[in-house]
């Protein structure tokens, strides 16, 4: 009884140990389909490949029976009979490893699959034990045919290629069903040592493939005559040049993110799906040709939101300061609120706390029109416009109406573009301006097609907001802004982007470490950035924008906008309190600004603004105030 008790106790302990080890090694494993090499194909809009995977998925039915039989005879003749493990081979490998201090291979197809999906190729006892349990796990959760299909599609075949179907395509230019038996023998032999025995590495020296053919002969699958014929054919097998797998990673991951957002995970799509993008191959080639590493380029059909070209880092979720590229976005709000193109804005030195914004030219003109302020990208009048409209109102408009995400600084420097955001976010704002108040979301995915040919998804334009009309309709405000942006290109800061004979609108932007140019015609918008110091949007980016725009024909599509607009009276809170009166009085005293110039300026003010201005000057210098007042009375 004591011996029987010890015997059954040993069996029980052994069973518990095996079960515990099985649970330990397999309980957290993901589904095998989620870790197979991706066979997702991504295409340009014309159907040509943008991203060719190193693994193409083929259903088991697509593989010829000759290939399946040859593989099983060569690698695992008992495949359909065992439970995933070659028990004798496994014990032999452990014995050799322990007592002869060498590592021995020898694995079933299921064990090889377990190794390629979940383990490493390093030969250690621990890996061999893991392989044992994972192989058993695979046999438990999948049928033999499913395991065979997984293996055929995931076996490593050298040169970064996975799967027999992929190898057939990239080594021989054939579909799996078109392979000859000599080609099958070469591929089956490849799995023995993928980097050494793949067709490209062997360069026509396919003597090792004779071993595979010899096995078929010994098993009676082929005759002596056929064997000799096939051996002779080995010498005439031609190998194609292996396809270049390089691709733009920024575009790839942008696609993957959008796919996730519409409900398609990479794990789901990796099994043979084709994703057709909106990317224009021709446009992409020109953008890549002319752009450098520190450039970011986004080309979009703003009527539909289709991304036509995409280059550089941070285009989707980057954080670059916008500089003056922000100005049209809140000037658009001003036009909606009833401001006119000839509305007068103060252009005098101002001080807000310790902040003293300056015009690029370092001068002041007293007053300018709203049109001139934007066309020539003047900072001080823009800040004054911002103050008149109200910081909270503009922030609300940018965030909730134009739907622009990013980092918004908690101060008034936002007026000059300290907003940190991306090309795609800026696109949403400019799409509203160019579309008559309709905010479009940019998109890169057009269709998703399964390996069964079924269309699983087809995109359509995504409207994310329609601008609420204020004193003007969004369409009329857009017409006015398009006129302003046209003047920017014709005679303003964006003149270097002008293409004679083309109707282009645009705007420059310059920040501490970034420069921008946004330009568009009646259908296509392109935003170009350049990273670096001491850059100017008009000088350093607009010429690049022009070079690309010429090639992709931006400027050929007309705008459908109103040429006239209705003038609206709007009550404005003139921000006279922010003028730097100490600076102004000092300039007058030094003779750098004459009293006559100041009088001429004051005559353009309404009476209330004139009295308010003089009262502020009086707090600094009663003498200067008196002189100004006397000259005004004398005139």
Automatic annotation (TrEMBL):
EC number annotated for this UniProt entry: 2.4.99.28
Domain Glycosyl transferase family, first and last residues per copy: 56-216
TM spans (from-to): 5-25
InterPro entries in the record: Beta-lactam/transpept-like, Glyco_trans_51, Glycosyltr_51/Transpeptidase, Lysozyme-like_dom_sf, PBP_transglycosylase, PCN-bd_Tpept
Annotated localization: Cell membrane
Protein name stated in the entry: peptidoglycan glycosyltransferase
Keywords for this protein: Carboxypeptidase, Cell membrane, Cell shape, Cell wall biogenesis/degradation, Glycosyltransferase, Hydrolase, Membrane, Multifunctional enzyme, Peptidoglycan synthesis, Protease, Transferase, Transmembrane, Transmembrane helix
The Penicillin-binding protein transpeptidase domain, residue ranges: 297-517
Domain of life of the native organism: Bacteria
Matches recorded under Pfam families: Transgly (PF00912), Transpeptidase (PF00905)
Catalyzed chemical reaction(s): [GlcNAc-(1->4)-Mur2Ac(oyl-L-Ala-gamma-D-Glu-L-Lys-D-Ala-D-Ala)](n)-di-trans,octa-cis-undecaprenyl diphosphate + beta-D-GlcNAc-(1->4)-Mur2Ac(oyl-L-Ala-gamma-D-Glu-L-Lys-D-Ala-D-Ala)-di-trans,octa-cis-undecaprenyl diphosphate = [GlcNAc-(1->4)-Mur2Ac(oyl-L-Ala-gamma-D-Glu-L-Lys-D-Ala-D-Ala)](n+1)-di-trans,octa-cis-undecaprenyl diphosphate + di-trans,octa-cis-undecaprenyl diphosphate + H(+)
SUPFAM superfamilies associated with the record: beta-lactamase/transpeptidase-like (SSF56601), Lysozyme-like (SSF53955)
């Amino acid at each position: 009884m004591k011996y029987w008790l010890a015997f059954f106790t040993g069996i029980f302990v052994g069973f518990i140990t095996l079960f515990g080890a099985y649970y330990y090694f397999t309980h957290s494993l993901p589904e095998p389909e989620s870790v197979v090499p991706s066979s997702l194909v991504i295409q340009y809009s014309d159907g040509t490949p943008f991203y060719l995977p190193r693994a193409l998925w083929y259903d088991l039915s697509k593989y010829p029976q000759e290939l399946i039989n040859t593989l099983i005879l060569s690698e695992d003749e008992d495949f359909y009979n065992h439970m995933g493990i070659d028990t004798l081979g496994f014990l032999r490998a452990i014995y050799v490893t322990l007592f002869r201090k060498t590592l021995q291979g020898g694995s079933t197809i299921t064990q090889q699959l377990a190794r390629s999906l979940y383990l490493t190729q390093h030969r250690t006892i621990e890996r061999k034990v893991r392989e044992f349990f994972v192989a058993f796990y695979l046999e438990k959760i999948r049928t033999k045919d499913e395991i065979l299909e997984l293996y055929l599609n995931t076996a490593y075949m050298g040169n970064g290629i996975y799967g027999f179907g992929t190898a057939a395509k990239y080594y021989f230019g054939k579909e799996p069903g078109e392979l000859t038996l000599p080609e099958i023998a070469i591929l089956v032999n490849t799995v023995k040592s993928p980097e050494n025995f793949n067709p490209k590495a062997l360069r026509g020296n396919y003597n090792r493939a004779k071993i595979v053919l010899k096995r078929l002969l010994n098993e009676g699958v082929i005759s002596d005559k056929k064997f000799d014929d096939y051996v002779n054919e080995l010498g005439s097998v031609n190998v194609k040049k292996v396809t270049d797998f390089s691709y733009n990673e920024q575009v790839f991951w942008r696609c993957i993110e959008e796919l996730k957002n519409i409900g398609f995970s990479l794990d789901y799509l990796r099994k043979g799906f084709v994703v057709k993008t909106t990317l224009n191959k021709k446009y992409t080639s020109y953008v890549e040709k002319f752009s450098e590493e520190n450039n970011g380029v986004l080309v979009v059909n703003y009527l539909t939101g289709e991304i036509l070209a995409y280059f550089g880092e941070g285009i989707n979720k980057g954080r670059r300061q916008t500089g003056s590229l922000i100005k049209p976005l809140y000037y658009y709000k001003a036009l909606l609120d009833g401001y006119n193109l000839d509305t007068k804005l103060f252009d005098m030195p101002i001080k807000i706390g310790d902040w003293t914004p300056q015009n690029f030219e370092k001068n002041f003109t007293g007053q300018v029109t709203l049109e001139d302020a934007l066309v020539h990208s003047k900072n001080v009048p823009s800040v004054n416009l911002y103050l008149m409209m109200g910081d909270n109102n503009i922030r609300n408009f940018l965030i909730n109406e134009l739907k622009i995400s990013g980092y918004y600084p908690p101060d008034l420097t936002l007026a000059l573009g300290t907003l940190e955001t991306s090309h795609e976010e800026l696109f949403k704002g400019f799409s509203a301006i160019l579309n008559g108040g309709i905010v479009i979301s940019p998109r890169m995915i057009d269709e998703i097609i399964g390996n069964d040919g079924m269309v699983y998804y087809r995109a359509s334009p995504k409207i994310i907001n329609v601008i609420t009309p204020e004193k003007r309709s969004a369409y009329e405000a857009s017409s006015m802004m398009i006129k302003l942006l046209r003047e920017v290109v014709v005679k303003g800061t964006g003149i270097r982007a002008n293409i004679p004979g083309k109707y282009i609108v645009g705007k420059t932007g310059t920040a501490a470490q970034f420069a921008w140019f946004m330009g568009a015609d009646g259908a296509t918008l392109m935003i170009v950035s350049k990273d670096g110091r001491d850059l100017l949007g008009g000088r350093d980016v607009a010429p690049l924008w022009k070079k690309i725009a010429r090639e992709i024909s931006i400027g050929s599509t007309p705008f459908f906008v109103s040429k006239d607009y209705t003038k609206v009276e709007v009550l404005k809170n003139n921000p006279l309190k922010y003028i730097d009166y100490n600076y102004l009085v000092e300039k007058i005293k030094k003779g750098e600004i004459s009293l006559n110039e100041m009088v001429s300026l004051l005559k353009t003010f309404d009476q209330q603004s004139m009295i308010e201005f003089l009262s502020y000057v009086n707090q600094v210098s009663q003498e200067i105030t008196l002189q100004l007042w006397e000259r005004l009375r004398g005139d």
